[in-house]
Structures are given as C-alpha cells and as structure tokens.
Amino acid sequence: MKPLALSIGDPSGIGPDLALSLWSQRRQLNVPEFLVLGDVEQLRLRAKHLQLDAPIEISNPANAKTDFQHFLPVQPLKNKLIENIGTPLSENAAGIIEAIEQAVALTLAGDTSAVVTCPISKKPLYDTGFEHPGHTEFLASLASQHLGHPVMPVMLLAGPDLRAVPVTIHIPLHDVPQQLTTQLIEETIIITERDLRTRFDIKEPRIAVSGLNPHAGENGALGHQDESVILPVVMKLRSKGMDIKGPLPADTMFHARARQNYDVAICMYHDQALIPAKALAFDESVNVTLGLPFIRTSPDHGTAFEIAGQGIARPDSLLAALKLAQTLSLTALKESA
Which of 42, 121, 219, 280 has the fewest CB atoms in 10 Å of its CB? Predict the structure, then answer.
C-alpha cells in the first residue's frame, strides 16, 4: 500500500506537534507510514522547541514508506510556512491551502493511498479570500474539479463504539428544520450506505435514523418533520431493500444495547451526532468524509492553539485517523481487485 498523505494543517496549532510525536513513537504505536505535506524548516523549529530528536528531511511518495523508518518524510511546499506557535498568521494561508491541494492531488494520482488532514483555522484563510465554509467543503470542491461534476460530501464521526452522521452540519439550530429536506436526507443515507459497503467492508449496513423533535415528534404532537419529512425517506429506502429503521427518538438511540442494533446512526443536526460520538470516545473519534473519490480522515479536534508547542497535545485522535485511513484504503484496494 502507498503511504498516507498528511497535510500539516495550521502550523501555529498542534498539527506539527502531533505529527512529530507520532513519528517519534512510530514503532511503539505501530503508526502507518505517512508523507507530510508541509515545511521542513518549520517542522525542524517545532521539533527543536519540543526537544524531540526527530530528523526531518525532504522526501516524495515513492520513497516515503522506506524513509519513514529513518526520518520524518516531508514533501515541501512552494509557499513557506512560518513558525509562530499559538497564534495563526494570514501569511501562512497559501501554504496551508497548498498542503491540502497537494495531498488531494497525490491521492487522486494514486501516489498516496489516502488524505489525512491536520486541523486548520478558518479565520486566517478567510482573511486572504478563502471562499469555502470549511475543510470538507474545500475538499469537495477539489473533488468536483477532478471529476467534472459536483460531489456531495457527508460527514461521518467514527469511534470504537459508534458511527454517526449529521445530515445538516455547520448551521444555526433554528435553521435546521428549513434545511432538512427529503432529498438531502435520502442522498445522505445513500452515500453513507454505499461507503459503508465499499470502504468499511460492511456488506449489509444496518442504518438507524433519528427523529428531529423530542420523542421523534410523538405522532405530530411535538413537530411534523418526523412524519412528513423523515419517515417517507425511511419507507422509500426500506422498500428498495435497505436495512433501515426510524425515525427513532434520539434520546434512546445511543445507549449500549441500542447501539448493538445498527452500524450507523443518521442524525438530523450537528450536535445530535457529535455529542454522543465525543462523549463515548473523545480521544479516539475520527472525522471521515464520505462521498469523495478519495479517502479522507482527520482527527476530531481543532487546532488547539492554546496548547501548541507545549508537548502536551494527545496524538490519539490523529493516530486513530491514520489507522482508519489505512484500513479504509486496504478495503478499497480489495474492492477494486
């Protein structure tokens, strides 16, 4: 299998700390080989600051797996990244964006097996004209350019005991009922079911769909969307042979016995999915973007500027993201064989 492509994220945050920490523990933790898309000098400065004995050298996809055993392999960027621990710089925006673009390009070309992204901060990107709401939407735009048609990204939070998908993501809660449509819910479920089969190797995914309102609307007494918007989608997809149930009351979907009955929970809004996912496995949850022509995972946390450069950032979630990317890549290889 080819190495993973790791975009370094915002260099002022903990992305460099985590990459360096995992490379330093690569044998103890059985870390999958990855190629960093970043800046060699910036990473060397961070390693020195963290007092880590981590040699960092220029590499490329063809040599990265071998090089990984001896030094942290980095494919350099045209745009330099400035070391400025704890405070993001708009001057780094071009390099941050380039790292993501390179990771995607290498993976689409088959030179790397998957994209793993360290966290970014949106403000320095917005300050320089970045027009996408976030990381996921930018990746979807790159995928659309490659394919020549729009793609719909789906966010999946994957942990040891729960997979959860929010149908709506980064919008205010009061906008959720208007944004929820039968088409959006149906497309989200179809993409999720397909990727669970082809990438997660779940032959017949069991899907649980949450309601929007308390008690899934209680037969219309607490809101109409559960019966008028969600239920028709569930019935339609079930009639086509999908193993799907719902809408279910969200307050009883996530206890241990309930989770044994499904492979993924389709939730109606951001916190409905992310609160149980993070409560169950805060340090091990992985953000997976479904619906793309390449595999993308990321740690389920932000840049954590306040602890960058202190040597206290836990690498658990990035390690889980790397290992899941490796597993999904192997499954995809098997499916395409």
Answer: 219
Q: Is 270 annotated as a binding residue?
A: yes
pLDDT of residue 62: 97
- Which of 74, 75, 71, 93 has its CA nearest to residue 84? 93
Residue 159 and residue 79 share a domain:
no
Tell me: is residue 215 an annotated ligand-binding position.
yes
Shared-domain flag, residues 119 and 211: no
Range of the domain at 93: 1-151+293-336
286-290 vs 264-267, strand pairing mode: unpaired
- CATH classification at residue 63: 3.40.718.10
**80 is an annotated ligand-binding site residue:** no
Are 287 and 159 in a shared domain? yes
Establish whether 46 is an annotated binding residue.
no
Assess whether 185 and 260 both reside in one domain. Answer: yes
Q: Is 287 annotated as a binding residue?
A: yes
* Residues 139 and 43 reside in one and the same domain: yes
Q: Does residue 301 share a domain with residue 251?
A: no
User: Using omega within 30 degrees of 0 as the cis cutoff, is the peptide bond preceding 55 cis?
Assistant: no
278 known ligand binder:
yes
List of the chain residues with pLDDT < 50: none
> How many domains does the chain fold into?
2
The predicted structure's pLDDT at residue 337:
62
Which strands sit side by side in the sheet containing 264-267, from one edge to the other? 56-58, 72-76, 34-38, 4-7, 115-117, 296-299, 286-290, 154-158, 163-166, 264-267, 206-210, 243-248
pTM over 0.85: yes
